[in-house]
Request: fold
Amino acid sequence: MNITIIGSGYVGLVTGVCLAQIGHRVICIDNDAEKTKKLQQGKVPIYEPGLEELMKPLMKKKRLSFTTTFRAAIKASEVIFIAVGTPSKKSGEADLTYVENVAREIAVNMDSYKLIVEKSTVPAATGKRIERTVKMNLPKKLREGKRRIEFDVASNPEFLREGAAIDDFMNPDRVVIGVESKRAERLLREVYKPLKTHMVVTNINSAEMIKHAANSFLATKISFANALSQICDRVGADILKVADGMGYDRRIGRSFLNAGIGYGGSCFPKDVDAFIRLSEKSGYPFELLKEVRNINEQQKAAFVKLVEDKLWILKNKVIGVLGLAFKPDTDDMRNAPSIDIIRALQHEGARIKAYDPQAVANSRPYLKGVTYGKDPYATAKGCDCLLLLTEWAEFKKLNYKKIGQSMNRALIFDGRNFLNDKDLENNGFEYHGIGRGRPVENP
Ligand code: NAD
Reply:
């Protein structure tokens, strides 16, 4: 099939590459000229394992191409995915400016039947708005009369995780499609046929709700584990064992029960905010989700307080940070918990030295006054403590004996419960995890 994807970001690019890989001919449009130029040269502008290797041969075989111009790319395909950003407004509501812009672009450039698929995460009932926008902006001669053209809108929310995006796309737990015509259903089934996965087929509003519900539920699980971790610290229980004990129960499951410094990234914080706003507007304020968000904020504050408890005066203390990205295997810094934590420590006068394997360049606009080490060893040298804020696999394999000896004080705060506490203690470190049953002073 010929498929056009609008927006070549984390989701659009992965979707484009993977759909080309499973046999379609894909054109990706992005209005960012610099990004598109890089892509046309076969360079992936983001860090996503395996993506560039997969992309290059597909471009050579002319199954995948990149452009900044709409006309030809809209004409060429029957199926058009919208994968532009849907950031938060100040109120928390989703800002759908890019989606609206794109809907208008499609309308003024289409000359035959199109299936317009929302892949961006959008509030329930956005499908109807896209439909209206396209109708309103279709040239009059194509809206009515003999040359009238048809179109359908569909919803196909994306569940991939950055860092594991290709595997998530190729082997999804399910594909959700929200459709309101047989034609739209047939086309989307055809798009995904090669994946041989379970399809959940429903109407557009329900598909949009599935995305709200899934992300909010995962955020709730994380906040539940984080709230437990606070109580664990106060009563001398170990959250790792508590989560294991809960997680073996198949009704609960172990995933997303990891306590830490809270969720971040480009999705959970904004999607939880957007769902809270939607729930308020709908007349059923989702109070539970407000608490999920509060717990997430408190978790970062509690981590800063723990560091403060142990270091006492933060002014002029040098704090080494390992990991900045919101999660491992990505360079994405959007809403990374490291940003709030570093800013709070800086506010108290601490000096920050940081290292991340991939996210340094993206972190610079968010972090002022931070010095960057060339590797974890250079970063830790002379520090009064170390914070592990992203669980990159390479941080497990470091020589902590050497690191501890080079520090002012061998003190480590493991914000992800990722390292082996006993090993670190054997290497001379004072270790603090999250909710590991060691009460914080002055809770
Ligand atoms: P992104 O910011 O990385 O990419 C969006 C792209 O759209 C950018 O390259 C931007 O230049 C382009 N764009 C904006 N306006 C445009 C226009 N008018 N014409 C052409 N291109 C335009 O965002 P992302 O992380 O890929 O997220 C996209 C959507 O997918 C969001 O709604 C997000 O919530 C959702 N989502 C993201 C993830 C994830 O892990 N990143 C997972 C699931 C769903």
